[in-house]
């Protein structure tokens, strides 16, 4: 049987995301069906909504917003659904003279 299409065809399997320390970083993926539930992971650990990360869904778009990104937030993230995943590499740059 054909595997179910979980992510939209135009969704790249891997994205590089740049963020500036202290600003929010947004990772977004698009699913094929609006009702698809996705789970976000960072470095293999499941993420849940907290004061630090916000998980948003609108239509077929799924977003993970990391508030006030810091060096500790850089790493490998993935958005998983139905046994398939889309991965992101988040790079956080500390702006010179930003007081860090």
H/E order of the elements? EEEEEEEE
Principal-axes geometry comes out as elongated
The biggest sheet amounts to: 5 strands, mixed
Structural class: mainly beta
- Intertermini distance: 53 Å
List the helices and strands and how they pair.
Blueprint: E1 14-20, E2 25-30, E3 39-42, E4 45-46, E5 53-58, E6 61-66, E7 75-81, E8 84-93
Parallel strand pairs: 1-8
Antiparallel strand pairs: 2-6, 3-4, 3-7, 5-6, 7-8
Keywords: Cytoplasm, Disulfide bond, Phosphoprotein
Subcellular location: Cytoplasm
Domain Ig-like: 3-95
Walkthrough of the structure:
With 100 residues, the chain is mostly beta strands. The protein contains no helices and eight strands. The strands form two sheets. Strands 1-8-7-3-4 form a five-stranded mixed beta sheet, with no helix packed on it. A three-stranded antiparallel beta sheet has the order 2-6-5, with no helix packed on it. A hairpin with a 2-residue loop joins β7 (75-81) and β8. The protein is elongated and about 55 Å long. It starts with 13 loop residues before the first strand and ends in a 7-residue tail after the last strand. InterPro entries: Ig-like_dom, Ig-like_dom_sf, Ig-like_fold, Ig_I-set, Ig_sub, Ig_sub2, Obscurin/Obscurin-like_Reg. This is Obscurin-like. It comes from Balaenoptera acutorostrata (Common minke whale).
């Amino acid at each position: 049987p054909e595997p179910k299409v979980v992510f939209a065809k135009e969704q790249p399997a891997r994205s590089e995301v740049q963020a500036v320390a202290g600003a929010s970083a947004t990772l977004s993926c698009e699913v094929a069906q609006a009702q698809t539930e996705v789970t976000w992971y960072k470095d293999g650990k499941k993420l849940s909504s907290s004061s630090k990360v916000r998980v948003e869904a609108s239509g077929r778009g799924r977003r993970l917003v990391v508030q006030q990104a810091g060096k500790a937030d850089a790493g490998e993230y993935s958005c998983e659904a139905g046994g398939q995943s889309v991965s992101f590499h988040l790079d956080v740059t500390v702006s010179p003279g930003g007081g860090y």
